[in-house]
Amino acid sequence: MGCFECCIKCLGGVPYASLVATILCFSGVALFCGCGHVALTGTVSILEQHFSTTPTDHALLSEVIQLMQYVIYGIASFFFLYGIILLAEGFYTTSAVKELHGEFKTTACGRCISGMFVFLTYVLGVAWLGVFGFSAVPVFMFYNIWSTCEVIKSYQANVTVPGDQICVDIRQYGIIPWNAVPGRACGPILENICNTNEFYMSYHLFIVACAGAGATVIALLIYMMATTYNYAVLKFKSREDCCTKF
């Protein structure tokens, strides 16, 4: 076997689906964790400066956000290891299915491990669908504030509708209590909030974090298809009466 044939054989053992899913998973998790962490910090800053000047009113929210930031660290570490493990499992099953290293051989333990990865990937896929939906909530909130600011700008030339009557009450979203002071911003004050760097950065970072969560969901869907296919082929070829070559 020449060098070219050897390279072609090695490339045939590369699990391209798992490789694409790993790259997409790493990128999505990095965007979600990095942008989400910074956006949460900016959100707390906006609340403290403009919507809840009393620290006790948003103490619970600050603790929850701090806990979420620690959870983000754990998510990033877990998916870094899990992506590497799934990629290694993809190399193993692809090599076994294509019989690149001699006669096909597999064990019940190997098939059990592959089945465990299939189940775990399905569970993570469902969980990340929830994360994706949850990450869209702050995007919706910031979009409402931004669109209200745009309405105020459009009414500046209309003297019949004063901009001071257009307000955003952040208490209606349930993130701070109803007795928080001031709790809402109106007219020029709200417009100034929208012009701050914290608002601009947090809004766009939440959008990127939501996109990262969506990319992770797509990566897990690819993992689901790849691991399910490999497990099914391994289980089929392990049968003694199997004579079909895939």
TrEMBL record:
Membrane topology: Multi-pass membrane protein
Family designation: Belongs to the myelin proteolipid protein family.
Molecular functions (GO terms): structural constituent of myelin sheath
Provenance organism: Cyanoderma ruficeps (rufous-capped babbler)
Name listed for the protein in its UniProt record: Glycoprotein M6B
Lineage: Eukaryota, Metazoa, Chordata, Craniata, Vertebrata
Recorded superkingdom: Eukaryota
Keywords: Membrane, Transmembrane, Transmembrane helix
UniProt record, GO biological process: axon development; central nervous system myelination; negative regulation of serotonin uptake
Compartment(s): Membrane
CC per GO annotation: membrane raft; myelin sheath; plasma membrane
Transmembrane regions listed in the UniProt entry: 19-47, 67-92, 113-137, 205-229
Chief site of localization: membrane
InterPro entries per UniProt: Myelin_PLP (IPR001614), Myelin_PLP_CS (IPR018237)
